[in-house]
Amino acid sequence: MAKTGTSSGGARSRPETALKRTEILKAAIETFGAKGFTNGTLADIAEQVDMTHAGVLHHFGSKQKLLLEVLAYRDRSDAGLVDQHIPGGPELFLHLVRTAHANALRPGIVQVYAVLSSESVTDDHPARAFFEGRFRILRSDVRAAFEQLCTQEGVTDRTTIDMASASILGVMDGLQLQWLLDPTSIDLGAASEFAIRAIVSEVLRPSAPLESYARDRG
Q: Is 4 helix (H, G, I), strand (E, B) or coil?
């Protein structure tokens, strides 16, 4: 079958254009998830949707713009699969747990996020600003949830909130990586819930220092 850039019957209708853009985004998720942004090419993506390189550019303009659209598509998928509206306050912790359980059902989305977020630390990566802003907003949201929870539970010592907020996000991403490497070795949803519960509990009711559990070797 000959590959085409645009429809030979004139301009595509809006529904057709939206459908083709979604097909390209899904192909880009598969390509970037498997090869990364640098090694995954527009030709790889075009081949999956029976288009030319120029046809993909017709819809997205550039590889960099396609990457940002992939990240936005991932976020829209989050909203559709978990909660239409991301809750604030203590309910946010439950939302994160639901997200982890939902992620176990969509390895492709999880993989492209893991690959692109890791790649974004490299020099001049087009998604760096996206991920810097994303983590900044997420840390702020989780911190606000901790503040409300501490107020609700009468906790006055809030010195660990910033560390706890970063730790929740870090452990969720780390567990996703372990799960991607060996899905049979870890229950992504259950492990994420355990970690989030442990971190929240540590903020509300700090435990004894780890040193207290070590046996005296003297």
A: strand
